[in-house]
Amino acid sequence: MNIALLGNKRAGKTSILKVVFQKISPNETLFTESTSRIEEINVYNNPYTKFTIIDFPGTFQISQMNANERKYLQNCSLVIYVLDAQDKPYERSLDAFVSILREVHGMNSQCFFEMFIHKIDGDMFMNDDVKLEVLNEVSDSVRLKISDREIPEPSYSLTSIYDLSIYEALSKVVQKITPQVGYLQNMLDVLMNHCRIDKVYVFDVITKLYIATDSTPVDLISYELCSDMIDVVIDVSCIYGLVESENINSVFDKKSTAIIKLDSGLTLYLREIEHMLALVCLVKADNFDRQHLIDYNIECFREGARKIFEAREKWIKDEEESKSFN
Amino acid sequence: MEENDPNKKVLLMGKSGAGKTSMRSIIFANFMPKDTMRLGFTNSINQSNIRFLGTLSLALWDCGGQDHFMQHYFESQRDTLFRNVQVLIYVFDVHSEDQRDMNYYRSCVDAIQDHSPTAHIFVLIHKMDLIPVEKRDEAFNKKEREVVKNSAGLNVICFKTSIWDETLYLAWSRIVHYLIPNSDVLTQSLNRFCSACEADEVVLFEKSTFLVISNFSSKQHKDVHRFEKISNIVKQFKLSCSKAAARFKSMTVMNTNFCAFVDEFTSSTYIMLISSDSTILPALTQMNIDLAKKHFEGVVRASTAVAQ
After folding, report:
1. Are the beta carbons of A261 and B226 separated by less than 8 Å?
2. CA gap B295, A153 in Å, rounded
3. B236 touches chain A (CB under 8 A)
């Protein structure tokens, strides 16, 4: 599955990738060189987190695309357009976005569109009202521009690399192009009801994107807490959990488990369910009295999830075989 | 008698902008490193009393480092400021080549010698993060030689520090260690507890600062800075908890090779216990920790008690 990343020069495309996928501190991205040609970033942390991001140079113009660029856009499942929110007025960028929408939709009707209203940080956006205003302004303007055409409505996210908003937005993008997410969500709902869990996430440990959650709304506070918990678990395991001969990837293994208790009566519980994949849940301490039952249920979830992904893999394989057969 | 005074006077000095107030805020006031950018300069002397380990009280004198304050310290305020000092912490900005800085340091040492000859002197070579990793040792050694040359033969301990990593916790853990009157008592008890639990190591942290108070290890570990790293990790997490309007209580982390417990221990400490023996059930270790709490309450009190 491919994700194309488009946007103006200096909009922050490469910085996003550096922060999320290469773990570079946001402050250091100031010195990022501009991208001069298409770059591919392959993410394959586990069978559940597998996609490719195609970073387009900021100079790319849809009206002058070459055959190679066209091929990339024809094959992608989702286009992210990064809009620099600190670079007003937006008019020209929005025009560019709409023409990308029209063009890509014409040659690839299955493609989703997502706009990141980016750099929503700093002094300009101190309060939430300003952020919402920008969001409304942009979406209204885009809606006007595409009103008479049969183009799908894009989705919008407010993002910044200085907080978790970029992770949340990318998590949603990845979920959108992973067809199994619906099933996983149903299973997580069942798990949540049976174990009296308040909120549950399935995390890719490396990027800290969540690839699935239950159907209750995501609040940034619980997401941040879970994400910080993964940091703690990995950092502590790096100190004590490595036997000399092992490489760094084995810090998170089959038996990785963590429990953090807070005085608000909340317990955070983390378990490994697949290579570099963790299930993190928030449970009230009173409901955490029978840990073995929760463990058993998580084990059932793990089995189910594995079967779903295996079925998908098999289906893709069969599809390819029948194609080559014809 | 000064040694036994429960009020420990700690002087924090150094040139303006060296980072004195920033480090104080991180260690004692739970600031995030990035929030220290908003701190203004310290006007004259900022005195704060910090409760430490329940009964100890640190009188921390954060002395603003602008030139005109500095002159006051060495002239009109010399007698009051440098009297009864237990610990002097002098902070150097590793980048600064200003000779005046060294002169001030020299004057501090002289004043300490006159008024509090028993005081411990620590020098923090700060803002190490601004220097490329491979050049840090070189820069530190150079500064250290210079400091020792200017210390009038007194025993001085130098640390390289940065607010962005665990080095800050290392330095401050060592410093507070000198302020605990009977830390041997604590180490001995930890030793016994560690062998009773068949644990690899046991570490005691002060509750609010998460500085290391005492530790005992029955096994060698390759990473000598691991405790400071843990201080840093847990403190960061405590701050994220406070964003969620909750307070961190305890944590258990394990994988195939180890099991780590961090738990509230006595009223003024947290304990960390590491076990690598997978045949010991975590619940058993947890029970041992719970049962030891009451006993250690007394031990911690004894270790901070003032000899009569």
Report:
1. no
2. 66
3. yes
CA-CA distance, B45 to A182, in Å (whole number)?
Answer: 61
Residue of A nearest to B224 (CA): A239
For chain A, the C-alpha Rg in angstroms (whole number) is 21
CA distance A16 to chain B (A): 20
The rounded distance, in Å, linking the Cα atoms of A200 and A191 is 9
Give me the residue label for tokens 């411990």. Answer: B120
From the list B236, B251, B255, which residue is nearest A256 (CB)? B255
DSSP state of A179: T
- Based on the fold, state whether residues B285 and B152 are members of the same structural domain: no
B274 touches chain A (CB under 8 A): yes
How many contacts does A have with B, using Cβ atoms within 8 A?
92
ipTM, two decimals, is 0.80
Distance of CA B26 to the CA centre of its chain: 11
Cα separations (Å) of A231 from A226, A234, A238, B171? 9, 5, 10, 24
pTM of the shown model: 0.83
Q: How far apart are the first and last CA of chain B?
A: 10
Q: Which residues in chain B have their CB less than 8 angstroms from residue A234's CB?
A: none
- CA dist., res. A282 & res. A288, Å (int): 10
In chain A, how many domains are there?
Answer: 2
CA atoms within 13 A on the CB side of B207: 19
User: Per the domain annotation, does B268 fall within a domain?
Assistant: yes
B219 in the same domain as B94:
no
User: Are A64 and A46 contacting, i.e. CB atoms less than 8 angstroms apart?
Assistant: no
Nearest to B177 by CA among B153, B203, B151: B203
Q: Which of B137, B160, B177 is the last residue of a domain?
A: B177
A255: nearest CB among B226, B245, B255: B255
Where among A176, A195, A226 does a domain terminate? A176
What CA–CA distance (Å, rounded) separates B253 from A239? 12
CA distance, residue A246 to nearest chain B CA (Å):
11
Q: Is B254 on the interface with A (CB under 8 A)?
A: yes
**For residue B195, what are the contacts with CB-CB under 8 A and spacing of at least 6?**
B218
Q: What is the pLDDT along chain B (308 residues), one digit of tens a residue?
A: 344 566 778 888 888 777 888 888 888 887 777 777 777 777 788 878 888 877 788 888 888 877 778 777 877 777 778 888 888 888 888 887 777 888 888 888 888 888 888 888 888 888 888 877 788 888 888 888 888 887 777 788 888 888 888 888 888 888 888 888 778 888 888 899 888 888 899 999 988 888 888 888 888 888 888 888 888 889 889 888 888 888 889 999 998 888 999 999 888 889 999 998 888 888 888 888 888 888 888 888 887 776 54
DSSP secondary structure letter of residue B257: S
Q: Closest by alpha carbon to B89, among B149, B147, B166?
A: B147
